[in-house]
């Protein structure tokens, strides 16, 4: 992924152009473009958004450097069947800045506090994770003492096959910290998981990349990928008869179908 510096206004225009010529965003997408429920996880708060009713609760974990709004084309469809929740990791979206190393282990612990303090810790949960977020989802599942009853892994990052361009990505993120501090911003590229992006979500994404706190969190995730991989190796054990579905390409329809497949296998 190549990052480049540009003005916040230009970043907004690029993101709006990426949204296409639609007069309105997909139904329900604007809810992802604003802060929702802020949950304390120990002196700081993470943003969380839930919709729908039923059990199990489907919890979505975004890829590295991404916020909960990445699931704006997926979560509403899942919420038609059961309760579905997205959240922003520390430093992303509408959550407070990160105050410790952004490792998969720390993120999974934050998620535990988030669900507990949101009075949702009883489970059961189906975890859906993309890329780096799949590593966090598995960490959480392995430590949840049976609360997680299904997994959907989208283009999952594996602890023994980390991206080869980590150093270049980290260098680019560090440069973007400086750019944002000087009033410029770097690009926040779209993802297929989003589907179409409306003006409100495009503006929220442009506002995020103008914040040094976002790039610090992104740089910390990249800088700690090896540590995250080691944490995953330490925690790794068989998932037994838990349904686990892997999705090779992150199109919304494929992800939705995989989630429904896992939900169908719930007892």
From TrEMBL:
- Listed Gene3D superfamilies: alpha/beta hydrolase
* Keywords recorded for this protein, A-Z: Hydrolase, Signal
UniProt-recorded Gene Ontology molecular function terms: hydrolase activity
Is Hydrolase one of the keywords UniProt gives this record? yes
Keyword Coiled coil present in the record's keywords: the answer is no
Question: What is the protein name for this chain?
Answer: Alpha/beta hydrolase
InterPro entries registered for this protein in UniProt: AB_hydrolase_1 (IPR000073), AB_hydrolase_fold (IPR029058), Meta-cleavage_hydrolase (IPR052370)
**Signal peptide start and end residues:** 1-23
Q: Residue limits of the AB hydrolase-1 domain?
A: 67-245
């Amino acid at each position: 992924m190549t990052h480049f510096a540009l003005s916040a206004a230009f970043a907004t225009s690029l993101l709006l152009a990426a949204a296409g010529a639609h007069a309105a965003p997909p139904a329900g997408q604007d809810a992802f473009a604003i802060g929702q429920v802020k949950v304390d996880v120990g002196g700081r708060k993470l943003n969380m958004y839930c919709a729908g009713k039923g059990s199990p609760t489907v919890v979505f974990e975004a890829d590295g450097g991404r916020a909960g709004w990445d699931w704006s084309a997926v979560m509403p469809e899942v919420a038609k069947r059961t309760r579905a929740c997205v959240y922003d990791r520390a430093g992303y979206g509408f959550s407070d800045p990160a105050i410790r190393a952004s490792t998969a282990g720390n993120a999974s612990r934050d998620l535990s506090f988030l669900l507990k303090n949101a009075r949702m810790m009883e489970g059961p949960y189906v975890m859906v994770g993309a890329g780096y977020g799949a590593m966090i989802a598995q960490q959480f599942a392995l430590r949840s003492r049976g609360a997680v009853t299904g997994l959907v892994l989208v283009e999952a990052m594996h602890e023994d096959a980390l991206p080869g361009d980590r150093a270049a990505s980290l260098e680019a993120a560090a440069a973007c910290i400086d750019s944002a501090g000087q009033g410029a911003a770097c690009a926040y590229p779209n993802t297929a998981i989003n589907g179409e992006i409306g003006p409100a979500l495009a503006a929220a994404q442009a506002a995020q990349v103008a914040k040094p706190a976002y790039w610090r969190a992104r740089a910390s995730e990249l800088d700690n990928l090896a540590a995250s991989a080691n944490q995953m190796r330490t925690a790794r054990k068989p998932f037994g008869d838990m349904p686990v579905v892997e999705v090779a390409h992150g199109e919304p329809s494929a992800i939705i179908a995989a989630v429904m497949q896992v939900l169908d296998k719930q007892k």
